[in-house]
Amino acid sequence: MPKRKIGVLVMSYGTPESMDGIEAYYTHIRRGSPPSEEQLQALTDRYEKIAIGVFPLRENTNRQVEQLELTLNKEHPEYEFKCYQGLKHAAPFIEDGVKQMAEDGIREAVGIVLAPHYSIMSVGGYTKRAEEAAAAHGVSIKCVKSYHLHPKLIEALTVRVKDGLKRFDVPQEQVRVIFSAHSLPEKILEMNDPYPDQLLASSKAVADKAGVQNWQFAWQSAGQTAMPWLGPDILDVLGTIRREEDVKHVLLCPIGFVSDHLEVLYDIDIEGQQLAKELGIHLERTASLNTDPLYMETLSDATAERLGQD
């Protein structure tokens, strides 16, 4: 008997494939409005500072999708899984991924986002586009909402926190562990959006498992818009804890990010480190999940579980 063929739409924010694609990418983020020369130059400068001869961001996501397909077929041999990328702001767009599934003859699919925590403004937006595209192409799709407390995800993050703490030459209790995630507009609070609570729940689960008591949460990478965004921002937090609490050792765990994004490689590793040096803080960052087997198994488990649900 042939195996059930399942398409898996792996969704993420997207990133340009090369420096040449930055303007088109930024224009799409701005809903078709091209950025000014100053805005484009500012973003290009950030990418140039993390490129170091290569442009690694898209390759990180590509590897995650490849490894997830291998993990799914290894862990769940009763199905035949094929993974497709669907990006929010770059090709292949979410709609492209669904279209390709349909062209490949797939009629049953699961959608999952490379972001453990649900917000109507992030994961909710991806899944809405996926469901609309699937309906148009005759594909039945079920989407995973969140997996922020999956035991394997918590274990993978715990290992990283423990490893990070070993990089300090002071007792663990003198190191402030700060968990961070991408800020969103404050208006999500009026919607009873679960995003902040899910992030705090993940942070607490990791801190408890790692035996960390000296921790807090902060936001990062807020958009430059007229509307207020969730805070406090990590850069402000670093200044506050140095001045008011004399904290000199910080381990930053960007718990809301699952690979080496611009928000990790630039916002933390360059901008955050520069500020930390000015403040006299020894700042370390936990390693990104990328293709960690525990993270791949988290995605695989969540996908298979959703497939079995009505």
Describe the model:
The protein has 11 helices and 8 strands. The protein is an alpha/beta fold. The chain folds into 2 domains: 4-147 and 291-307, Rossmann fold (3-Layer(aba) Sandwich); 151-285, 3-Layer(aba) Sandwich (Rossmann fold). The protein has a 4-stranded parallel β-sheet, sandwiched between helices. A 4-stranded parallel β-sheet has the order 6-5-7-8, with helices on both faces. β5 (176-182), α7 and β6 form a beta-alpha-beta unit. α6 packs antiparallel against α11 (293-307). The longest helix is centred in the N-terminal third of the chain and has 19 residues, at 57-75. It is globular, with a radius of gyration of 20 Å. The relative contact order is 0.15. The mean pLDDT is 95.
The residue fraction in helices comes out at: 40-55%
Main sheet specs: 4 strands, parallel
Question: How far is the first residue's CA from the last residue's CA?
Answer: 23 Å
Q: What is the number of helices?
A: 11
Low-confidence stretches: none
What's the structural domain tally?
Answer: 2
Strand order of the largest sheet: 2-1-3-4
Beta-strand portion reads 15-25%
Helical/strand content category:
alpha/beta
String of helices and strands: EHHHEHEHEHEHEHEHHEH
Based on CA atoms alone, the radius of gyration comes out at: 20 Å
Give the strand tally. Answer: 8
**What's the CATH C level of the largest domain?**
Alpha Beta
Describe the global form: globular
CATH architecture descriptor name of the largest domain: 3-Layer(aba) Sandwich
Q: Tell me, rounded to a whole number, the average pLDDT.
A: 95
Could you name the CATH topology of the largest domain? Answer: Rossmann fold
